[in-house]
Amino acid sequence: MLFCKLQSIKIMLSIIHRKAYQDFLDLLIKLENHDQNLAVATKTAEKEIIWQNLKQVFQQHIIPLTDENLDLATASRWISLQAEIQREFRLLNTDWLFLISSRQPATKQAREKSVVERLRKLIGYCQVMLTLRSQEEDG
What we know:
Structural class: mainly alpha
CATH class: Mainly Alpha
Number of helices: 4
Low-confidence stretches: 1-13
CATH architecture: Up-down Bundle
Number of strands: 0
Mean pLDDT: 82
Strand content: under 5%
Shape: elongated
Largest sheet: none
Number of domains: 1
Distance between the termini: 21 Å
Helix content: over 70%
Order of helices and strands: HHHH
């Protein structure tokens, strides 16, 4: 009976992991693909809303995740990827702050490029995490 409860807890946590990474991934993609045709003021306001949502998902759903109920092989890979996601997000946050404070067009363009590169790295890490979740659920 206790084993069955532990099994269901493990599956539930896998679903929690999957949902957290999927929500985070969706917002990363939304920010990366934000419509370029909008007016600058609207684009900036909408990007800021997406950014605030992204930060909230990261702080409330990604950071609290643990490897507690993962098997040893998955946990090792998960710890490594989670550390990279957290590091890359901190760097993205710094780049974002520099972007919104930049005034010169050349500086703004360079910062936008840096933000997009970081978004793409985070998207890749999340896609790998979602693959880990699928493998764990299959095994």
